[in-house]
Amino acid sequence: MLLKKDGHVHTPFCPHGSIDELELYIEQAIKEGFNCLTFTEHAPLPKGFKDPTPLEDSAMKLEELGDYFESILLLKERYQNSITINVGLEIDYIRDYEKETTDFLNEYGKYLDDSILSVHFLKIKDQYYCMDFDDKTFNEMISETGSLKVLHETYYNEVLHSINSDLGKYKPKRIGHITLANKFQKLFPVTFSNEKWILDILTSIKEKNLEIDYNVAGLRKEYCGEVYPNDEIAKMAIKQEIPLIYGSDAHSARDVGKNYKYFEQLSNSK
């Protein structure tokens, strides 16, 4: 059977997402014809790191992690004849918190079937920002870095650091939404080339035998309108034989499997 996988799905354990029950996510995946689903809730942020978002709701709390694992394991068994369910996490790569992240993975990585390493937080002038929080925060980051181009370079450099970082044997094998810097591109159009950074990122991913999260969430974002990464970059990855894994990045059950057709079209164009 051809594997049809949604490798990036959130849960009711996400404090900034839907309260849809886990079963609803699974039933939607089955309805959409998927035979594999990875729950990748935002992992607890590193010890000592202060969430810069106003409500500090970027990730689940550490004390919720046990319930998260237990809930998915129960459903994994219940649905074993209908769909493969993976226990996963979306791990944040945060500069200066590599040790704390490694310690977390060393403790909990053995419970993971699959996981994603993503960059959401950037350190600018000794202050951390959540770059995809909203357009106002993004504009503030442009001001702090000096230009949109420098902000993009800062982001791509951080993605490169995440790829090359040593986070131990449980480091995630898939790199999340590598072009998240384009989330607000309709408000802040990119008039420069990021090709050098993209090539460096793809080269490093290839060298380390990692995967890329083909994340369709950008299609649902008002100021983005494209997949992370876009078709041009995705085709560059395919030429290098880098695996692309479809991810809905669903924060509600209705978005599981959404816009899978874009991934199918890309796969058929090989």
UniProtKB/TrEMBL annotation:
Gene3D superfamilies: Metal-dependent hydrolases. Residues 6-215 form the PHP domain. CDD domains: PHP_HisPPase_Hisj_like. Pathway: Amino-acid biosynthesis; L-histidine biosynthesis; L-histidine from 5-phospho-alpha-D-ribose 1-diphosphate: step 8/9. Belongs to the PHP hydrolase family. HisK subfamily. Pfam families: PHP (PF02811), PHP_C (PF13263). It catalyses: L-histidinol phosphate + H2O = L-histidinol + phosphate. InterPro entries: Histidinol_P_phosphatase_HisJ, PHP_dom, Pol/histidinol_Pase-like. The lineage of its organism: Bacteria, Bacillati, Bacillota, Bacilli, Bacillales. This is Histidinol-phosphatase. Its EC number is 3.1.3.15. One of its GO terms (molecular function) is histidinol-phosphatase activity. The keyword DNA-binding does not apply. It comes from the Bacteria. Keywords: Amino-acid biosynthesis, Histidine biosynthesis, Hydrolase.
